[in-house]
Queue: 2 jobs
Job 1
Amino acid sequence: MSSGALIVVVFALAVFWFMWRQIKGNLVHLEDDDLDDFLSNRMGEKALKRTREHLLRCASCKLRLDEMTKKTQKVKPDRWLKRRF
Ligand SMILES: [Zn+2]
Protein backbone atom coordinates (compact mmCIF):
# COMPACT_ATOMS: atom_id res chain seq x y z
CA MET A 1 0.00 0.00 0.00
CA SER A 2 1.38 3.42 -0.91
CA SER A 3 1.45 6.22 1.61
CA GLY A 4 -1.08 8.15 -0.49
CA ALA A 5 -3.64 5.36 -0.17
CA LEU A 6 -2.94 5.17 3.57
CA ILE A 7 -3.74 8.85 3.98
CA VAL A 8 -7.02 8.36 2.11
CA VAL A 9 -7.93 5.43 4.36
CA VAL A 10 -7.09 7.36 7.53
CA PHE A 11 -9.10 10.33 6.28
CA ALA A 12 -12.07 8.11 5.42
CA LEU A 13 -11.94 6.55 8.89
CA ALA A 14 -11.82 9.96 10.51
CA VAL A 15 -14.86 11.10 8.54
CA PHE A 16 -16.68 7.87 9.37
CA TRP A 17 -15.84 8.22 13.07
CA PHE A 18 -17.07 11.82 13.06
CA MET A 19 -20.35 10.87 11.35
CA TRP A 20 -20.85 7.92 13.69
CA ARG A 21 -20.42 10.21 16.69
CA GLN A 22 -23.07 12.57 15.30
CA ILE A 23 -25.49 9.72 14.55
CA LYS A 24 -24.92 8.13 17.95
CA GLY A 25 -25.55 11.48 19.64
CA ASN A 26 -28.91 11.66 17.88
CA LEU A 27 -29.93 8.10 18.66
CA VAL A 28 -29.07 7.95 22.33
CA HIS A 29 -31.93 9.59 24.17
CA LEU A 30 -31.68 11.36 27.48
CA GLU A 31 -32.23 9.38 30.65
CA ASP A 32 -34.88 10.42 33.16
CA ASP A 33 -32.01 11.18 35.52
CA ASP A 34 -30.50 13.51 32.92
CA LEU A 35 -33.78 15.37 32.59
CA ASP A 36 -34.13 15.50 36.35
CA ASP A 37 -30.63 16.94 36.73
CA PHE A 38 -31.34 19.36 33.91
CA LEU A 39 -34.48 20.64 35.64
CA SER A 40 -32.84 21.00 39.02
CA ASN A 41 -29.69 22.64 37.60
CA ARG A 42 -27.36 19.92 38.87
CA MET A 43 -25.57 19.44 35.57
CA GLY A 44 -21.97 20.18 34.71
CA GLU A 45 -21.12 22.53 31.86
CA LYS A 46 -20.44 19.72 29.38
CA ALA A 47 -23.53 17.64 30.20
CA LEU A 48 -25.69 20.73 30.12
CA LYS A 49 -24.51 21.59 26.61
CA ARG A 50 -25.08 18.02 25.43
CA THR A 51 -28.58 17.95 26.92
CA ARG A 52 -29.52 21.32 25.41
CA GLU A 53 -28.29 20.22 21.98
CA HIS A 54 -30.23 16.97 22.19
CA LEU A 55 -33.42 18.72 23.28
CA LEU A 56 -33.18 21.06 20.28
CA ARG A 57 -33.03 18.10 17.90
CA CYS A 58 -35.23 15.57 19.63
CA ALA A 59 -38.98 16.13 19.92
CA SER A 60 -39.62 13.06 22.08
CA CYS A 61 -37.12 14.08 24.76
CA LYS A 62 -38.46 17.63 24.68
CA LEU A 63 -41.92 16.18 25.30
CA ARG A 64 -40.61 14.13 28.23
CA LEU A 65 -38.94 17.24 29.64
CA ASP A 66 -42.23 19.15 29.37
CA GLU A 67 -44.04 16.36 31.21
CA MET A 68 -41.39 16.29 33.91
CA THR A 69 -41.56 20.06 34.25
CA LYS A 70 -45.31 19.79 34.86
CA LYS A 71 -44.74 17.10 37.48
CA THR A 72 -42.06 19.11 39.27
CA GLN A 73 -44.33 22.10 39.35
CA LYS A 74 -47.07 19.98 40.91
CA VAL A 75 -44.67 18.52 43.47
CA LYS A 76 -43.09 21.80 44.51
CA PRO A 77 -45.99 23.24 46.62
CA ASP A 78 -46.07 20.00 48.65
CA ARG A 79 -42.37 20.24 49.39
CA TRP A 80 -42.77 23.85 50.29
CA LEU A 81 -45.58 23.04 52.73
CA LYS A 82 -43.63 20.23 54.31
CA ARG A 83 -40.67 22.49 54.81
CA ARG A 84 -42.83 25.18 56.29
CA PHE A 85 -44.63 23.06 58.87
ZN1 LIG B 1 -34.09 12.08 22.52
Job 2
Amino acid sequence: MQPRRVTRQVYVGSVAVGGDAPISIQSMTTTKTADVDGTLAQIYSLAGAGCDIVRCTCNEEEAAEGLAQIVPRSPVPIIADIHFQYRLALAAMEAGVQALRLNPGNIRKPEHIKAVAREAKDRGLPIRIGVNAGSLDPDIAARHGGATPEALVASAVRELDYFRDVDFDDVKISVKASNVPVMIDAYRLLSETVDYPLHLGVTEAGPPPAGVVKSTAGLGTLLAEGIGDTIRYSLTADPVEEAQAGRTLLEALGLRERQGLDLIACPSCGRAEIDVIGVAKAAQHALEERNLPLQVAVMGCVVNGPGEARGADLGIAAGRGKGHLFVRGTVVRVVPEAEMVDALVEEAERIVEEGIEARLAAADANAEAIAAADREQLVELRGTDANHAAERIEKIREITER
Ligand code: SF4
Protein backbone atom coordinates (compact mmCIF):
# COMPACT_ATOMS: atom_id res chain seq x y z
CA MET A 1 0.00 0.00 0.00
CA GLN A 2 1.31 3.42 -0.96
CA PRO A 3 0.91 6.25 1.57
CA ARG A 4 -2.27 8.21 1.06
CA ARG A 5 -1.90 11.22 -1.21
CA VAL A 6 -2.30 14.51 0.64
CA THR A 7 -5.43 16.37 -0.42
CA ARG A 8 -7.37 19.38 0.77
CA GLN A 9 -10.34 18.71 3.01
CA VAL A 10 -13.97 19.61 2.41
CA TYR A 11 -17.01 18.97 4.59
CA VAL A 12 -20.21 17.36 3.36
CA GLY A 13 -22.33 18.29 6.36
CA SER A 14 -20.57 16.66 9.30
CA VAL A 15 -18.52 14.26 7.14
CA ALA A 16 -14.97 15.37 6.30
CA VAL A 17 -13.71 14.27 2.88
CA GLY A 18 -10.02 14.45 2.00
CA GLY A 19 -7.00 15.35 4.07
CA ASP A 20 -6.64 12.87 6.92
CA ALA A 21 -10.35 12.03 7.08
CA PRO A 22 -11.29 8.34 6.82
CA ILE A 23 -12.18 7.36 3.24
CA SER A 24 -15.95 7.71 3.12
CA ILE A 25 -18.55 5.49 1.48
CA GLN A 26 -21.24 6.92 -0.73
CA SER A 27 -24.26 5.54 -2.51
CA MET A 28 -27.29 6.89 -4.31
CA THR A 29 -30.99 6.32 -3.76
CA THR A 30 -33.01 4.67 -6.53
CA THR A 31 -36.40 5.97 -5.38
CA LYS A 32 -38.12 9.04 -6.80
CA THR A 33 -36.87 11.84 -4.57
CA ALA A 34 -40.41 13.23 -4.45
CA ASP A 35 -41.35 10.01 -2.61
CA VAL A 36 -40.15 11.31 0.74
CA ASP A 37 -40.95 8.26 2.89
CA GLY A 38 -39.63 5.75 0.35
CA THR A 39 -36.41 7.72 -0.09
CA LEU A 40 -35.90 8.13 3.65
CA ALA A 41 -36.41 4.38 4.18
CA GLN A 42 -33.66 3.71 1.64
CA ILE A 43 -31.37 6.31 3.21
CA TYR A 44 -31.81 4.66 6.62
CA SER A 45 -31.00 1.23 5.13
CA LEU A 46 -27.89 2.69 3.49
CA ALA A 47 -26.75 4.34 6.72
CA GLY A 48 -27.27 1.02 8.51
CA ALA A 49 -25.06 -0.70 5.92
CA GLY A 50 -22.20 1.71 6.64
CA CYS A 51 -22.85 4.43 4.06
CA ASP A 52 -21.50 7.82 5.18
CA ILE A 53 -23.05 10.09 2.54
CA VAL A 54 -26.10 9.57 0.30
CA ARG A 55 -26.85 11.22 -3.04
CA CYS A 56 -30.38 11.78 -4.30
CA THR A 57 -31.33 12.91 -7.77
CA CYS A 58 -32.78 16.40 -8.05
CA ASN A 59 -34.25 16.14 -11.53
CA GLU A 60 -37.50 18.09 -11.14
CA GLU A 61 -39.15 20.65 -8.91
CA GLU A 62 -40.98 17.92 -6.96
CA ALA A 63 -37.61 16.31 -6.20
CA ALA A 64 -36.26 19.59 -4.77
CA GLU A 65 -39.42 19.89 -2.66
CA GLY A 66 -38.90 16.29 -1.50
CA LEU A 67 -35.33 17.15 -0.48
CA ALA A 68 -36.64 19.94 1.76
CA GLN A 69 -38.42 17.24 3.78
CA ILE A 70 -35.78 14.52 3.46
CA VAL A 71 -32.67 16.45 4.52
CA PRO A 72 -33.81 17.37 8.07
CA ARG A 73 -34.82 13.74 8.76
CA SER A 74 -31.81 12.04 7.20
CA PRO A 75 -29.22 10.33 9.45
CA VAL A 76 -26.42 11.14 6.96
CA PRO A 77 -25.58 14.17 4.79
CA ILE A 78 -27.41 14.42 1.48
CA ILE A 79 -25.92 15.45 -1.87
CA ALA A 80 -28.20 16.58 -4.69
CA ASP A 81 -27.34 15.14 -8.09
CA ILE A 82 -27.83 17.75 -10.81
CA HIS A 83 -27.89 17.30 -14.56
CA PHE A 84 -28.77 19.89 -17.27
CA GLN A 85 -30.83 22.31 -15.14
CA TYR A 86 -28.74 24.68 -13.08
CA ARG A 87 -31.92 26.11 -11.50
CA LEU A 88 -32.46 22.77 -9.80
CA ALA A 89 -29.03 23.16 -8.18
CA LEU A 90 -30.20 26.47 -6.73
CA ALA A 91 -33.47 24.83 -5.64
CA ALA A 92 -31.64 21.92 -3.98
CA MET A 93 -29.47 24.34 -1.99
CA GLU A 94 -32.62 26.12 -0.89
CA ALA A 95 -33.95 22.68 0.19
CA GLY A 96 -31.00 22.39 2.56
CA VAL A 97 -28.76 19.75 0.95
CA GLN A 98 -25.22 19.50 2.31
CA ALA A 99 -23.52 19.40 -1.13
CA LEU A 100 -24.10 19.25 -4.87
CA ARG A 101 -22.84 17.09 -7.69
CA LEU A 102 -22.67 18.88 -11.04
CA ASN A 103 -21.99 17.17 -14.36
CA PRO A 104 -19.82 19.56 -16.41
CA GLY A 105 -20.80 17.64 -19.53
CA ASN A 106 -24.40 18.79 -19.38
CA ILE A 107 -24.44 22.16 -17.59
CA ARG A 108 -22.24 24.06 -20.02
CA LYS A 109 -23.09 27.74 -19.87
CA PRO A 110 -20.33 29.46 -17.83
CA GLU A 111 -22.82 31.97 -16.37
CA HIS A 112 -25.00 29.12 -15.07
CA ILE A 113 -22.03 27.25 -13.57
CA LYS A 114 -20.78 30.44 -11.91
CA ALA A 115 -24.24 31.28 -10.54
CA VAL A 116 -24.37 27.89 -8.82
CA ALA A 117 -20.81 28.21 -7.50
CA ARG A 118 -21.53 31.70 -6.13
CA GLU A 119 -24.59 30.43 -4.29
CA ALA A 120 -22.69 27.41 -2.94
CA LYS A 121 -19.93 29.72 -1.74
CA ASP A 122 -22.43 31.95 0.07
CA ARG A 123 -23.97 28.91 1.74
CA GLY A 124 -20.63 27.21 2.51
CA LEU A 125 -21.52 24.09 0.52
CA PRO A 126 -19.06 21.94 -1.46
CA ILE A 127 -19.62 20.86 -5.05
CA ARG A 128 -18.41 17.68 -6.68
CA ILE A 129 -17.32 18.14 -10.25
CA GLY A 130 -18.64 14.84 -11.53
CA VAL A 131 -17.12 14.16 -14.94
CA ASN A 132 -18.48 11.11 -16.70
CA ALA A 133 -16.97 9.50 -19.81
CA GLY A 134 -20.44 8.92 -21.24
CA SER A 135 -21.48 12.58 -21.09
CA LEU A 136 -18.30 14.47 -21.85
CA ASP A 137 -18.32 17.97 -23.39
CA PRO A 138 -18.41 17.26 -27.16
CA ASP A 139 -15.64 19.80 -27.91
CA ILE A 140 -13.33 18.26 -25.30
CA ALA A 141 -14.05 14.75 -26.59
CA ALA A 142 -13.34 15.89 -30.16
CA ARG A 143 -10.07 17.54 -29.17
CA HIS A 144 -8.81 14.45 -27.37
CA GLY A 145 -10.14 11.84 -29.78
CA GLY A 146 -12.85 10.53 -27.43
CA ALA A 147 -13.30 9.93 -23.73
CA THR A 148 -9.61 9.46 -22.97
CA PRO A 149 -8.13 9.97 -19.48
CA GLU A 150 -6.76 13.34 -20.71
CA ALA A 151 -10.24 14.39 -21.92
CA LEU A 152 -11.85 13.49 -18.59
CA VAL A 153 -9.27 15.52 -16.68
CA ALA A 154 -9.55 18.45 -19.13
CA SER A 155 -13.30 18.59 -18.48
CA ALA A 156 -12.71 18.77 -14.71
CA VAL A 157 -10.05 21.45 -15.12
CA ARG A 158 -12.33 23.61 -17.30
CA GLU A 159 -15.04 23.47 -14.61
CA LEU A 160 -12.47 24.33 -11.95
CA ASP A 161 -11.50 27.42 -13.96
CA TYR A 162 -15.12 28.63 -13.95
CA PHE A 163 -15.26 28.08 -10.20
CA ARG A 164 -12.01 29.98 -9.68
CA ASP A 165 -13.47 32.95 -11.59
CA VAL A 166 -15.92 33.36 -8.72
CA ASP A 167 -13.35 32.45 -6.09
CA PHE A 168 -14.92 29.09 -5.25
CA ASP A 169 -12.75 26.11 -4.40
CA ASP A 170 -14.81 24.02 -2.00
CA VAL A 171 -14.53 21.17 -4.44
CA LYS A 172 -14.09 17.44 -4.85
CA ILE A 173 -13.76 15.76 -8.22
CA SER A 174 -14.59 12.51 -9.97
CA VAL A 175 -13.59 11.34 -13.45
CA LYS A 176 -15.60 8.17 -13.91
CA ALA A 177 -15.58 5.78 -16.83
CA SER A 178 -17.04 2.31 -17.29
CA ASN A 179 -13.77 1.20 -18.88
CA VAL A 180 -11.60 0.30 -15.89
CA PRO A 181 -8.13 1.02 -17.38
CA VAL A 182 -9.37 4.43 -18.65
CA MET A 183 -10.84 5.20 -15.23
CA ILE A 184 -7.61 4.22 -13.44
CA ASP A 185 -5.44 6.32 -15.76
CA ALA A 186 -7.81 9.29 -15.52
CA TYR A 187 -7.64 9.34 -11.72
CA ARG A 188 -3.88 8.89 -11.74
CA LEU A 189 -3.55 11.89 -14.07
CA LEU A 190 -6.05 13.91 -12.05
CA SER A 191 -4.18 13.22 -8.81
CA GLU A 192 -1.00 14.59 -10.42
CA THR A 193 -2.88 17.66 -11.66
CA VAL A 194 -4.86 18.85 -8.62
CA ASP A 195 -4.88 18.42 -4.85
CA TYR A 196 -8.65 18.42 -4.40
CA PRO A 197 -10.20 15.37 -2.72
CA LEU A 198 -11.15 12.69 -5.23
CA HIS A 199 -14.38 10.72 -5.38
CA LEU A 200 -13.66 7.33 -6.98
CA GLY A 201 -16.05 5.27 -9.05
CA VAL A 202 -16.33 2.97 -12.04
CA THR A 203 -19.50 4.22 -13.66
CA GLU A 204 -22.22 1.88 -14.93
CA ALA A 205 -20.32 -1.14 -13.61
CA GLY A 206 -23.46 -3.27 -14.01
CA PRO A 207 -25.00 -5.98 -11.86
CA PRO A 208 -23.05 -8.13 -9.39
CA PRO A 209 -20.89 -10.14 -9.47
CA ALA A 210 -19.22 -8.63 -12.58
CA GLY A 211 -20.08 -5.08 -11.45
CA VAL A 212 -18.47 -5.66 -8.06
CA VAL A 213 -15.36 -7.15 -9.67
CA LYS A 214 -14.97 -4.25 -12.14
CA SER A 215 -15.49 -1.63 -9.44
CA THR A 216 -13.12 -3.37 -7.05
CA ALA A 217 -10.46 -3.59 -9.77
CA GLY A 218 -10.68 0.17 -10.34
CA LEU A 219 -11.19 1.38 -6.79
CA GLY A 220 -8.83 -1.14 -5.19
CA THR A 221 -5.99 -0.34 -7.57
CA LEU A 222 -6.24 3.38 -6.93
CA LEU A 223 -6.72 3.10 -3.17
CA ALA A 224 -3.64 0.87 -2.94
CA GLU A 225 -1.74 3.66 -4.70
CA GLY A 226 -2.96 6.14 -2.09
CA ILE A 227 -5.43 7.81 -4.48
CA GLY A 228 -9.01 8.46 -3.40
CA ASP A 229 -10.86 10.14 -0.55
CA THR A 230 -14.42 8.90 -0.99
CA ILE A 231 -15.83 6.00 -3.02
CA ARG A 232 -18.98 4.76 -4.65
CA TYR A 233 -19.73 1.36 -6.17
CA SER A 234 -22.16 2.00 -9.07
CA LEU A 235 -24.03 -1.29 -9.23
CA THR A 236 -27.21 -2.29 -10.98
CA ALA A 237 -28.53 -3.61 -7.68
CA ASP A 238 -30.11 -2.56 -4.40
CA PRO A 239 -27.95 0.41 -3.29
CA VAL A 240 -27.43 -1.31 0.05
CA GLU A 241 -25.20 -3.74 -1.89
CA GLU A 242 -23.14 -0.74 -3.04
CA ALA A 243 -22.63 0.39 0.54
CA GLN A 244 -21.76 -3.13 1.69
CA ALA A 245 -19.25 -3.57 -1.15
CA GLY A 246 -17.65 -0.20 -0.35
CA ARG A 247 -17.41 -1.03 3.31
CA THR A 248 -15.93 -4.47 2.60
CA LEU A 249 -13.31 -3.04 0.24
CA LEU A 250 -12.16 -0.37 2.70
CA GLU A 251 -12.04 -2.85 5.57
CA ALA A 252 -10.15 -5.39 3.43
CA LEU A 253 -7.54 -2.76 2.58
CA GLY A 254 -7.29 -1.73 6.22
CA LEU A 255 -8.56 1.75 5.38
CA ARG A 256 -11.59 1.59 7.70
CA GLU A 257 -12.05 -0.17 11.00
CA ARG A 258 -14.03 -3.37 10.87
CA GLN A 259 -17.64 -2.58 11.67
CA GLY A 260 -19.13 -6.02 11.37
CA LEU A 261 -18.32 -9.61 10.60
CA ASP A 262 -15.42 -10.66 8.38
CA LEU A 263 -16.06 -14.30 7.55
CA ILE A 264 -13.20 -16.12 5.96
CA ALA A 265 -13.51 -19.72 4.83
CA CYS A 266 -11.27 -22.17 3.05
CA PRO A 267 -12.26 -22.96 -0.54
CA SER A 268 -12.64 -26.63 0.47
CA CYS A 269 -10.83 -29.52 -1.15
CA GLY A 270 -10.68 -33.27 -1.07
CA ARG A 271 -9.61 -33.19 2.57
CA ALA A 272 -12.78 -31.42 3.71
CA GLU A 273 -14.59 -33.25 6.50
CA ILE A 274 -17.77 -31.17 6.14
CA ASP A 275 -19.81 -29.30 3.52
CA VAL A 276 -17.71 -26.13 3.88
CA ILE A 277 -19.98 -24.01 1.65
CA GLY A 278 -23.11 -24.99 3.62
CA VAL A 279 -21.49 -24.48 7.03
CA ALA A 280 -19.92 -21.16 5.98
CA LYS A 281 -23.31 -19.89 4.76
CA ALA A 282 -25.07 -21.00 7.95
CA ALA A 283 -22.34 -19.39 10.08
CA GLN A 284 -22.43 -16.16 8.05
CA HIS A 285 -26.21 -15.93 8.37
CA ALA A 286 -26.18 -16.57 12.13
CA LEU A 287 -23.25 -14.24 12.85
CA GLU A 288 -24.41 -11.39 10.58
CA GLU A 289 -27.73 -11.30 12.38
CA ARG A 290 -25.80 -10.51 15.55
CA ASN A 291 -23.46 -8.02 13.83
CA LEU A 292 -20.34 -9.09 15.73
CA PRO A 293 -17.14 -7.21 14.77
CA LEU A 294 -14.90 -10.28 14.49
CA GLN A 295 -12.92 -12.15 11.88
CA VAL A 296 -14.30 -15.69 11.92
CA ALA A 297 -12.90 -18.64 9.95
CA VAL A 298 -14.69 -21.75 8.74
CA MET A 299 -12.16 -24.40 7.72
CA GLY A 300 -12.97 -27.73 6.12
CA CYS A 301 -10.47 -29.86 7.99
CA VAL A 302 -8.53 -29.88 11.20
CA VAL A 303 -5.34 -30.92 9.38
CA ASN A 304 -4.65 -27.48 7.94
CA GLY A 305 -7.53 -25.31 9.20
CA PRO A 306 -6.41 -23.91 12.56
CA GLY A 307 -2.88 -23.26 11.28
CA GLU A 308 -3.94 -21.55 8.05
CA ALA A 309 -6.49 -19.38 9.84
CA ARG A 310 -4.43 -18.67 12.94
CA GLY A 311 -4.82 -14.92 12.41
CA ALA A 312 -8.62 -15.13 12.76
CA ASP A 313 -10.17 -14.09 16.07
CA LEU A 314 -12.23 -17.26 16.08
CA GLY A 315 -12.59 -20.27 13.85
CA ILE A 316 -13.89 -23.76 13.47
CA ALA A 317 -12.31 -26.71 11.72
CA ALA A 318 -13.91 -30.09 11.13
CA GLY A 319 -12.40 -33.50 11.79
CA ARG A 320 -13.54 -37.01 12.69
CA GLY A 321 -17.16 -35.99 13.28
CA LYS A 322 -16.20 -33.07 15.53
CA GLY A 323 -15.86 -29.30 15.32
CA HIS A 324 -12.61 -27.87 16.69
CA LEU A 325 -13.12 -24.30 17.86
CA PHE A 326 -9.97 -22.23 17.86
CA VAL A 327 -9.17 -18.70 19.00
CA ARG A 328 -6.17 -17.07 17.27
CA GLY A 329 -4.98 -20.57 16.26
CA THR A 330 -5.35 -22.23 19.71
CA VAL A 331 -8.04 -24.92 20.04
CA VAL A 332 -10.23 -23.94 23.00
CA ARG A 333 -13.13 -26.40 22.70
CA VAL A 334 -14.20 -29.48 20.75
CA VAL A 335 -17.91 -30.10 20.00
CA PRO A 336 -19.89 -32.71 18.04
CA GLU A 337 -20.09 -31.78 14.33
CA ALA A 338 -23.86 -31.19 14.47
CA GLU A 339 -23.34 -28.44 17.07
CA MET A 340 -20.50 -26.58 15.36
CA VAL A 341 -22.44 -23.59 14.03
CA ASP A 342 -24.29 -23.02 17.31
CA ALA A 343 -21.03 -23.35 19.23
CA LEU A 344 -19.33 -20.89 16.87
CA VAL A 345 -22.01 -18.27 17.50
CA GLU A 346 -21.83 -18.87 21.24
CA GLU A 347 -18.04 -18.46 21.21
CA ALA A 348 -18.27 -15.29 19.08
CA GLU A 349 -20.66 -13.71 21.57
CA ARG A 350 -18.41 -14.77 24.43
CA ILE A 351 -15.33 -13.21 22.80
CA VAL A 352 -17.13 -9.93 22.15
CA GLU A 353 -18.26 -9.89 25.77
CA GLU A 354 -15.10 -11.13 27.53
CA GLY A 355 -12.26 -10.48 25.07
CA ILE A 356 -9.84 -12.81 23.33
CA GLU A 357 -7.34 -13.14 26.17
CA ALA A 358 -10.03 -14.14 28.68
CA ARG A 359 -11.37 -16.81 26.29
CA LEU A 360 -7.90 -18.20 25.71
CA ALA A 361 -7.27 -18.32 29.45
CA ALA A 362 -10.51 -20.31 29.94
CA ALA A 363 -9.77 -22.85 27.15
CA ASP A 364 -10.83 -26.47 27.81
CA ALA A 365 -7.76 -28.16 29.25
CA ASN A 366 -7.87 -31.16 26.90
CA ALA A 367 -9.12 -29.44 23.71
CA GLU A 368 -5.68 -29.07 22.15
CA ALA A 369 -4.84 -32.72 22.90
CA ILE A 370 -8.12 -33.98 21.32
CA ALA A 371 -7.49 -31.79 18.28
CA ALA A 372 -3.92 -33.04 17.94
CA ALA A 373 -5.09 -36.67 18.11
CA ASP A 374 -7.81 -36.06 15.48
CA ARG A 375 -5.29 -34.32 13.26
CA GLU A 376 -2.88 -37.22 13.52
CA GLN A 377 -5.57 -39.81 12.87
CA LEU A 378 -6.75 -37.93 9.82
CA VAL A 379 -3.27 -37.64 8.37
CA GLU A 380 -2.76 -41.33 8.99
CA LEU A 381 -6.11 -42.27 7.51
CA ARG A 382 -6.13 -40.00 4.51
CA GLY A 383 -2.43 -39.40 4.15
CA THR A 384 -1.72 -37.66 0.89
CA ASP A 385 -4.68 -39.41 -0.71
CA ALA A 386 -7.43 -37.13 0.48
CA ASN A 387 -9.65 -37.97 -2.45
CA HIS A 388 -9.52 -41.73 -1.76
CA ALA A 389 -8.05 -42.33 -5.20
CA ALA A 390 -6.11 -45.45 -4.17
CA GLU A 391 -9.23 -46.97 -2.61
CA ARG A 392 -11.23 -46.20 -5.75
CA ILE A 393 -8.59 -47.62 -8.06
CA GLU A 394 -8.60 -50.81 -6.00
CA LYS A 395 -12.39 -51.08 -6.38
CA ILE A 396 -12.21 -50.36 -10.14
CA ARG A 397 -9.67 -53.16 -10.51
CA GLU A 398 -11.93 -55.52 -8.61
CA ILE A 399 -14.85 -54.66 -10.89
CA THR A 400 -12.88 -54.99 -14.11
CA GLU A 401 -11.27 -58.27 -13.05
CA ARG A 402 -14.64 -59.89 -12.36
S1 SF4 B 1 -8.56 -26.30 5.35
FE1 SF4 B 1 -8.54 -28.47 4.85
S2 SF4 B 1 -10.41 -28.75 3.62
FE2 SF4 B 1 -10.02 -26.56 3.64
S3 SF4 B 1 -8.84 -26.20 1.76
FE3 SF4 B 1 -7.36 -26.47 3.46
S4 SF4 B 1 -6.83 -28.67 3.37
FE4 SF4 B 1 -8.74 -28.41 2.18
